[in-house]
Amino acid sequence: MGVVNVTPDSFSDGGRWFDTTAAVKHGLDLVAQGADLIDVGGESTRPGASRVDASEELRRVVPVVRGLASEGVTVSVDTMRARVAEEAVAAGAALVNDVSGGLADPDMVRVVAAAGTPFVVMHWRGFSESMNSRAVYGDVVAEVARELRERMDAVVAGGIAPERIVIDPGLGFAKDAAHDLSLVAHLDELRALGRPLLVAASRKRFLGHVLAGEGAAPPPARERDAATAAISALSAHAGAWAVRVHEVRATADAVRVARAVEGAA
Ligand code: PMM
Asked: Could you identify the atom of ligand 1 that is nearest to the CA of residue 221?
């Protein structure tokens, strides 16, 4: 899954694809590099970010979804708003990726159920402005698995077919670096929930933390792509359904290598 953030302020690639034409071209480039689907988002979810208006989010996202879908690209829309999901699906999006797992907007589950698309349920504990204070766990893997299970049950009760649910541990969302690493180390426990697993580690803080030397500053987000590809290989090997990344080429190679190793086992 290649990422196109149509935002001025995402931590990883903010401002680079803010114009529709540039965003569509970037999505097509990511497909050429091996992405099977493109995730289009119009709201930054970096820690501390404040929310964007619905009208502005629609203005950013819908033309890019339409442009990519009309080129035959499988598009997912990354939004916490039911109205944005609905209009993006009408413009050709095939999947709805909601980092709040349906918690942020009370209409989301109903809209996705009616649309009949797959729905990414990410583990989430609250909006970006306050999420760092919610990174408190006894056993992070068990708690994330339990909270994901509760969300799965809730969205099924709201009418989304169980077979349309994809789950995601939400790396970096109300989690510190040690939490993220534990989750990556125990993807099998999330796989045990019985649904396809999406892993979105690309360029995130925990990778900066891993790469920083003792007492040194972490490398900037755009220098974390090799580390991202390493997580992609590990995730593929652990049975992930997809990895969500900004730089596709290295991840496509990493996934190919993981598959080849499995084929030789
Ligand atoms: N992370 C970001 C945005 N969207 N979607 C899913 N399903 N899972 C994630 O972990 C996730 C996401 C934040 O990263 P970005 O600002 O680099 O896109």
From this structure: 17
Sequence-ordered alpha helix ranges (H) in 116-247:
140-157, 177-185, 187-191, 205-211, 225-237
pTM of the model: 0.95
Per-residue pLDDT at 69: 98
CA nearest 102: which of 93, 112, 116, 92?
Answer: 112
Beta carbon of 170 within 6 Å of any ligand 1 atom: yes
- What is the tens place of the pLDDT at every residue in 178-217? 999 999 999 999 999 999 999 999 999 999 999 997 888 9
Give nearest CA residue, ligand 1 atom 6. 99
Domains, the chain: 1-86 (3.30.750)
Q: In sequence order, which residues have a C-beta less than 8 Å from that of residue 163 and are 6 or more positions away?
A: none
Alpha carbons 217 and 177: distance in angstroms, whole number: 14
Residue 175 annotated as catalytic: no
Lowest mean pLDDT among 37-51, 100-114, 151-165, 190-204: 37-51
Q: Whose CA is nearest to atom 3 of ligand 1?
A: 45
- Whether 117 is in the pocket of ligand 1, judged by its Cβ within 6 Å, is no
Active-site residue identified among 204, 205, 224, 256 = 204
244 included as an active-site residue: yes
Distances (CA, A) of 207 to 134, 170, 228, 252: 20, 14, 8, 19
Cβ(79) – ligand 1 distance below 6 Å: no
139: which residues sit within 8 A by CB, 6+ positions away? Answer: none
44, 45, 103, 190: residue to mutate for ligand 1 pocket, most atoms within 8 A of CB: 45
Give the Cα separation of 24 and 4 in Å (integer): 8
